[in-house]
Amino acid sequence: MKLSLTLSLSLLFALFAPSLAQGSSSEEAAKLFQAGVAKLEAQKRDIFTPSDTDEIEIKYDVKKTDSLISPIVGLLTVTKRSQSGVTFIDNITFSFADGGWEATKYVFTIDSLVGRKSQERPLSEVPVPRIQECFK
Prior knowledge:
It is a single chain. The protein has helices at 2-16, 18-21, 26-47, 128-134; strands at 53-64, 72-82, 87-97, 100-112, 115-121. By secondary structure, it is an alpha+beta fold. The protein has a 5-stranded antiparallel β-sheet with strand order 1-2-3-4-5. Strand 1 and strand 2 (72-82) form a beta hairpin. Helix 3 packs across helix 4 (128-134). The protein is globular and about 45 Å long.
């Protein structure tokens, strides 16, 4: 029974995670994500253009998940701090599939003296398309 369960799980994994089944490893995925972040770092002043932004900080992480649909995800956080004390945060989740990274979720947050408000927004909203280009 254990052998058949192992084989069944292996077969399911191969069917639903083709990018990994074809030899893409999490290390390769992480390297591709890092390359995208490096491009984003080089272009950040062109992509994020608030006139009073003093500091743009980019943080990221690549994680394995238990999901058969998205076994590897990339998490990107871009924090823009302004002179006025308002902080704008772009949180974008990427999924690794077919050897590349694709944005799957965008959450925009404003943090100010009066509070913090987060809202999920469409992937077509600026700056997501320009960020996505860095990961192509």
